[in-house]
Amino acid sequence: xxxxxxxxxxxxxxAVGLGGGIAAGIVAHVVGPKDPALAGAVxxxxxxxxxxxxxxxxxxxxxxxxxxxxxxxxxxWFWVKMAAVAVLTVAAVVMQVSIKRLEPSARAAxxxxxxxxxxxxxxxAVVFAVLAxx
Length: 134
Known about the structure:
The protein is an all-alpha fold and 134 residues long. It contains four helices and no strands. α1 packs antiparallel against α4 and α2 runs antiparallel to α3. The longest helix is centred in the C-terminal third of the chain and has 30 residues. The protein is elongated, with a radius of gyration of 16 Å. The protein starts with a helix and ends with a helix.
């Protein structure tokens, strides 16, 4: 039962993180040109939720490994997935630091660079997870 609960939380966190990343891009494209302040505020909130979701993914994913024999028993595709997760995590941490330290215009410029990296890494992590656990 615990494994199923962990998987449910893991999948929900994945939905929040990836969905929030895609939503942030839409907000930037649709709202950003008309109201940069509103777009920035929404994107900061989405980034915060996405970062919390990423933490949840790390916690639940690590806990789920016990069902698969632990870290050492993971197939090669798992490690490729983890490389994508590492890229995503570094970019997400950089974005969180940028939110705290940069002015809105500089933060928006940083987000324009990091958003495709984070979204791409997240998609690749899902693809490689399917290959690892299918």
